Amino acid sequence: MNDAWVTAMIGVRFVEQGRDLAGFDCWGAVAHGLRQGFGIVVPSYTEAYTTSQEGDEIAALIGRESSGWLAVPLADAQPGDVLILRIQGRPWHCGLVLEPPAFLHADRTLWTVRDRWDSPVWSRRIIGLYRHPEMAARRLARSDGLQEAACPHTPGNAAHQLKSVTGDGGQ
User: What integer is the mean pLDDT of 57-72?
Assistant: First the structure.
């Protein structure tokens, strides 16, 4: 994995609905990392919520968009997978897996940081780990000995929509 994009993201300030190096919220950091590091374009979802403090709206968004991504056991995590975390009993936060168990996420107080999901802060909050369908298809093609095909990154394509997890419903 080329780490230049990760280095550029570390320390970027938290900005509500931030989607670029001027600032990120948690989904903005994941979306930017997927695009820069893996060539995967996902929707911004800025129309779905106003602030990251809207826990009910964000949990509902995650629930609505959960079916299309592949659930992956933590033991099988790979760079580019998306980690869904529980905050206040709901699926409310996300991060992008770097080298397991490291992940990148944006936090209101920490800004954009590299963290570990096995830390005492995060290990008890894990709801699930999910792989974008395009990344799953690329990995399957490589494991079958096929060459990785270029992908069209069609923004309206359903395969490019966020599909995370409702998991245990944030219980």
Answer: 83
